[in-house]
Amino acid sequence: MATLILVRHGRSTANTSGVLAGRTPGVALDERGAAQAAALPGRLADVPLAAAVTSPLQRCQETLRPLLEARPDLPLHVEDRISECDYGDWSGRKLAELSDEPLMQVVQAHASAAAFPGGESMRAMQNRAVEAVRDWNARVEAEHGEDATYLMCSHGDIVKAIVADALGMHLDLFQRIHVDPCSVTAIRYTRLRPFLLRLGDTGDFAGFAPREHPDSGGAAEVGGGAGAP
Questions:
Q1: What is the pLDDT of residues 47-79, one digit of tens each?
Q2: Are 222 and 18 in contact (CB under 8 A)?
Q3: Dist CA 132 CA 106 (whole Å)
Q4: Strand bridging mode 52-54 / 194-201
Q5: Which of 133, 123, 229 is nearest to 180 (CA)?
Q6: Strand, coil or helix: what is 197?
């Protein structure tokens, strides 16, 4: 079956401002996110891609723009099922503020029981994303053969949920997975089981250095999704 390259979108204005963007329109890449996107074609230069699939949200489409410019023949498909989790009434709120919500503890420790007020459950989020991957695996293999590779650009919680499914992990454990902005995760699907080939690969180990606290005057970076560390 096909090999899936999962790309989390580049760093966005919501990531740096500590906001849970969700599906809020107008959330774009920030300056660093744009630079990450510009580097993506070079990072994937040796990987033949049969297709690119993207979340409909702006920050994902901006992430893929340099890759599509470098590969004008690469077909692009928009897939609603890999859009960001619908955080409902939490969308647009500060993560620091949401940390005091009792539901946040459920999101962190018992994600399969978490449903966002006015939005969707995390279980439903995973189900639709995994269904999309399985459908695209079959489509890409039928059109390009079982050795084909394709790319999906999506969001942190979506990528983590797909990885958890590939590893046979319960959704309640998916917060143990971390993927940085514009990181590359690769999963090879076979008839019997998936194989995780890469997880959150950025080619940059600077992220292992201690991060500055927001109160220290340095730029704070917040990961994506309701499970951001």
A1: 999 999 999 999 999 999 999 999 999 999 999
A2: yes
A3: 26
A4: unpaired
A5: 229
A6: strand
Task: Return the structure tokens found at 60.
Answer: 């994902």
DSSP single-letter state for residue 13:
H
Q: Which two tokens stand for residue 76?
A: 């692009």
State the amino acid at position 32 in one-letter form: R
> Residue 40 class from Cβ within 10 Å (0-12 exposed, 13-18 middle, 19+ buried)?
buried
Give the tokens for residue 14: 């919501």
Residue 87: which of 62, 114, 106 has the closest Cα? 114
The token duo for 113 is 């029981």
The pTM of this model reads 0.91
Structure tokens at 19: 């906001």
For residues 74 and 67, the answer to whether their CB atoms sit within 8 Å is yes
Amino acid in position 229: P
- Residue 147's nearest CA partner among 157, 156, 137 is 137
Per-position DSSP letters for 53-87, written without gaps between them:
EE-SSHHHHHHHHHHHHH-TTS-EEE-GGGSPP--
The number of helix segments (H) and strand segments (E) in the chain equals 7, 6
Query: Strand pairing partners for 8?
Result: 154
